[in-house]
Amino acid sequence: MIDPERLKLEFLTLAGIDSPSTRERDLAQHLISVFEALGGECFFDHSAVYSRSNTGNLIVRIPGRSDLEPLLLSAHLDTVEPTPEVQPVEEAGIIRNEKGGLVGADDKSGIAVIIELVRALRDSGASHPPLELVFTTCEEIGLFGARYLDYRLLRAKMGYILDSEDPRKVIVKAPEAIKFRLKVLGRAAHTGLEPEKGLSAIKLAAEALARLPNGRIDEETTLNFGTIKGGKATNIVPEEVLIEGEIRSHDTAKIDSLWERINETFREVCSPPEPDGRPAFSAHREEMFPRFRVDPEHPVLRLLSRAASRLGMDLEYAKSEGGSDANIFNRNGITCVILGTGMRRVHSPEEYLVVEDMVLCTKLLYEVVVSAGEGALQPD
Questions:
Q1: In CATH terms, is domain 176-289 a member of 3.30.70.360?
Q2: What is the dihedral of CA 304, 309, 310, 314, to 10 degrees?
Q3: What are the extents of the domains in the chain?
Q4: Which of 112, 159, 295, 308 has its Cβ near the most Cβ atoms within 10 Å?
Q5: Gap between the Cα atoms of 48 and 252, Å rounded
Q6: Fold of 4-174+291-373
Q7: How many other β-carbons are positioned within 10 Å of the β-carbon of residue 115?
Q8: Mind listing the pLDDT tens digit for each residue in 78-103?
Q9: Which of 152, 111, 132, 90 is nearest to 7 (CA)?
């Protein structure tokens, strides 16, 4: 029942609507017109108060069998940068931006998949569970739409996020990540007149960093010191240095262990302080996103496996090293995995979309929803 041409044309329409992070309103309004015509109930939450977007998250309810639990389907509205004059062209089954730069595959391909799915369900008349469609804002700048979503508005306990590359690879695992800020305080002095009275914050920070690992720590953990800022002039001993970085791991204990090692190392370098309290060190950490891991026996994957079998597809369960809305949905009690939509080279000037894979993703999702409508998740 999937119409590949209709799907492709919908993506091209979406690609022409500029929707960078914090400016997703025009795309959301377009989706309201689409889904209301398909019988959906559309409304916004109040996340814009916190997310900085010009619109809230768009939630769409598609009626289905009232005796079945609803399924969540989600994609994000924003692109990583503006695309005001995108010119999509198709060559040999590939859609790219003729002008170079983003074509909007991340994540307008996911939105197009959901639209075509709902149209196909209407055309076929197939039985299906109620669907809760969530189109989030500000995913690209910190998952803010998903963070500030009012989860009391949703009934679904499981679902699928449309925000990856290959539909044959299902993301079932992603790491936790924290970002941190370290401040080292030395003592300023004139470098020519009395350098011995100074304490170089740059030298202290360099000594601490030289003692610490960086990059890939093990197969599931990375540490990066990403920025360092300090000093005012070449004739002043630098008084302050600010270092920013991040830790990612599939094991929370490893994050905590690395964070403690960083703190201990900087404390050692900055001790003992002199009578004026210098050198000094302070540290602050905050969450970027929580980790998630979905058990292969969870119904969300059993349903997906059944759908893939119907299509003769072989699925691979994979892990991601990045964060997505799925991290946030899972933490809030909605078990989600991530499906690929055919996007490639995202966030780069070479971004493109494999149309065949977008079609395959839509067929897979259709079989998922129809299988659920047939009672595949009901007790025997």
A1: yes
A2: 90
A3: 4-174+291-373, 176-289
A4: 112
A5: 30
A6: Aminopeptidase (3.40.630)
A7: 23
A8: 999 999 989 999 999 999 999 889 99
A9: 111
